[in-house]
Amino acid sequence: MSIESNALAQALGTFMEEATEFLGQMEEILLRAEDEACSEDDLNALFRCAHTIKGSGGLFGLDEVVRFTHVVENVLDQLRKGHLSFDSELISLLLECQDHISGLISVFANGGEPETTRSDELIVRLQVWLGGEAVPAASASASAAAGKSEPGAAEHWHLSLRFDRKILQDGMDPLAFINYLSQYGELAHVETIVDALPEFDDADPELCYLGFEVALRSSASKEEIEGVFDFIEEGSNIVILPPQSKIAEFVTLIESQQAEVARIGEILVACGSITAKELEHALEQQKRQAEPERIGDILIEQGAVLPPVVAAAAEKQKRVEDKRGAESKMVKVPAERLDAMIDRVGELVIASVGTHSRISGLQRPDILESADVLISLVEDIRDMALRLRMVAIGEVFSRFPRVVRDVSKELGKDIELRIHGADAELDKSMVEKIADPLMHLVRNSMDHGIEPAEVRRARGKPARGTLELNAYHESGAISIEVKDDGGGLNRERILKKAIESGLASADDNLSDEDVYRLILAPGFSTAEKVTNLSGRGVGMDVVRANIEALRGTLDIESVPLQGTTMRLCLPLTLAIIDGFHVGVGDSHFVIPLDMVVECIELPADVGDRDYFDQRNEALPFIRLREIFGERGNGHPRPRVVVVRFGARRAGLVVDRIYGKCQTVIKPLGPLFSEVPAVSGSTIIGSGEVGMILDVPSLVRHCAAAAGKRPARKAALSASEAVESIAS
Amino acid sequence: MGNETLTVPGDVAKAADPDNAGQVVTATPVVEQPYLAFRLAGEVYAVGILRVREIIAYTPLTSVPMMPASVRGVINLRGSVVPVIDLAVRFGRQSVAVGQRTCFVIVEVEHEGATHILGLMVDGVNAVMEIAASDIEPAPAFGTRVQTDFIAGMARVDGNFVIILDIGRVLSIEEMAVIKSGDLLE
């Protein structure tokens, strides 16, 4: 790929990113407008979003985006000027338009040519709001023809453009404005003025030295044409001469642009803005009347050059400072650079723990003290490094107002969304991965949870349903709740369905919680009719699998007639966990600390049974030594680490217990993808590799294996017990 | 680091240099490729050196539970966890005892578009040798103690046969990751 196309691709990427941001902003404002009156700032911001998308879209030649957004922009302009006001229908329409623009942009991003039918349909609907307002014809060919109406109405405008020299540094392209002018009419003639161009050595490539004289045949109003230059008025010299301007105005123009008079004159003639005769006349007139004063003027002007230059310099300096201030608040860093750093910090933690443990053996309090300081600093750095990846959960939540709005319209239900704790933070990679499961839960709650208004009224509840999204931190994890005030889960119906589909049997004595968990089983659906949104029975099991893949849990609480709460509990990060370090034979293993309940000695009378009685409950256990085929140093009195996951408990028999440790997770790669008991590895303080146990899958595996091994009579009851915890 | 062993001897570079090609007696220019030769259970094998990242001394391994025996375990290679393959077991033979010259050859393999690092446990490395493509013969249909599709070719070096391994096949992650139910729970 050449450098140029590379740069273009990069610029296009930036445009996409920006457009997405602007579209998001539009959506946010529109949704807000639905509930409360829109402030003037919001209206202006809306207009600006559309305008910028159109402008930069034009830069990349996205004609369809420009054509469509132009109409949207007109409507927004009317809103901004108070000629129109928001109602729910218009907001819906604008939201559709916003979706459409985003669709158009992504079509372009993928290198396709979008269809125009949908644009045309929306444009027709937008035009209803615009009434008599002149808008481009809604035909595919009209892309660049806005305002290029009947030739009779088009008149000759003359535009003299001297852009602010810093325009390029401000990220704007003069050419884009000229291209954009063609929206309003035909560019009859464009002359480039290079007089201001300095010697090559003195020229600053970041400055714009060019000026343009443009002859435009257009029927647009002066305001519309002026509107093109809305964003660049400051510092630029834009003169717009309406059709049939007086010669005197051209003369003023010639003077004001401080270029060589004759040359400007020639250009005007070339543009067809004045005739040669008119020019001659004008120059003569100027010579005759103004010459004495002109010299004085020029002198004064030369004298006066200084203050504005100083002011401009000061202004520029201030702008640079402002920009710097804004930059210091936010730094965009490529994710992989951040990941590389966190990786290294992980190494640092491992190395420092190793060093510390060696120093501890030295009996040198002075060195030990400094090692202590070092280790606490390293831990600080680790926490900070991990926090760099933290983003507010609001990033995910922000898409839900729109979803709730659209889905509730679709379902014909009135549902209010309340969001709490949008500032709770979690790892960026987690944020990306929980979006889909959350979306599913929200849709489910709206479809199945919240009852139709009549039912709600009959039940004495407000007709408007409430859906809450709550996020909060709880002991090193984040909990996210999707809570509705609907009818709650129907125990009988779930059970009936589960028995029908063979997920449960009628004589199982299941607790409420167990029954609710049935909805997470694959292929389960109680919805009587399959709707667009849910009811196909794929989903909840996928949601559960997704959440478990993130080492999270999903709990369901439900009160009949009062509502359901789905609670996701997720670790804050996937990179480092708190682990519990144990030894089996010569190997080291790490059990996620949040699963560890307690540690006890293996009762001596256990024999070769695989369960023992703990506080009147049969606790099945797994002898890791046997299962892993470890032959290394054993321990005469093995320990049992009691683990809990979900609602189940099991014991893991180990030889040694080393205690709690910070565990930097090292993924094991595809070679180990099928190992059932290990979810990753880590490097422990001594530099050896330890395996991180995947407790749920280990237990499941042992239960399955025990089921196939009926020979060992003594183990039979244990395998049943294990099976019961694993199922 | 073992990186030094990877430097290509000057005469290899010369052989590849077209200016020196005229000095070669044979009519066709000899294309020699460097290979790393190592010993394993009494035989000499070779792998293309471009696949080899480094050679490190034997360190105790951490075994990964429930993996087939061909995956000997993992080592900590400067902070990365690298699996080590017991080639003898992979070839269907008895695992070899760790000797004084046992070492790990760290190689790169491609899997689903990503490069993965694996270690090979060998009895010892011999040398980097240049083998001309013309000296490499196809593997015999039988007679070798290694399954034929693991062999890229047989080369005769100083009167002895060297088995050149098709490392992509030998270290096929798809194949090695498969856990037969018999491997589990002994």
UniProtKB/TrEMBL annotation, chain A:
Species classification: Bacteria, Pseudomonadati, Pseudomonadota, Betaproteobacteria, Rhodocyclales
Cellular component terms (Gene Ontology): cytoplasm
The protein's Enzyme Commission number: 2.7.13.3
Catalytic activity, as annotated: ATP + protein L-histidine = ADP + protein N-phospho-L-histidine
PROSITE patterns: CHEW (PS50851), HIS_KIN (PS50109), HPT (PS50894)
Domain HPt: 4-108
InterPro entries: Bact_Chemotaxis_CheA, CheA-like_dim, CheA-like_homodim_sf, CheW-like_dom_sf, CheW-lke_dom, HATPase_C_sf, HATPase_dom, His_kinase_dom
Annotated PANTHER family: CHEMOTAXIS PROTEIN CHEA, SENSOR HISTIDINE KINASE CHEA
GO biological process terms on file: chemotaxis
Limits of the CheW-like domain: 566-704
Residue ranges occupied by any Histidine kinase domain in the UniProt entry: 367-574
CDD domains: CheA_reg (cd00731), HATPase_CheA-like (cd16916), HPT (cd00088)
Keywords, comma-separated and alphabetical: ATP-binding, Chemotaxis, Kinase, Nucleotide-binding, Phosphoprotein, Transferase, Two-component regulatory system
Job description of the protein: Involved in the transmission of sensory signals from the chemoreceptors to the flagellar motors. CheA is autophosphorylated; it can transfer its phosphate group to either CheB or CheY.
Organism (species): Rhodocyclus tenuis
One Gene Ontology term of the molecular function aspect: ATP binding
Top-level enzyme category: transferase
Highest taxon in the source lineage: Bacteria
Keyword Manganese among record annotations: no
Residue numbers of Phosphohistidine PTMs: H51
Keyword Acetylation: no
Alphabetized SUPFAM superfamilies for the sequence: ATPase domain of HSP90 chaperone/DNA topoisomerase II/histidine kinase, CheW-like, EspE N-terminal domain-like, Histidine-containing phosphotransfer domain, HPT domain, Homodimeric domain of signal transducing histidine kinase
Protein name: Chemotaxis protein CheA
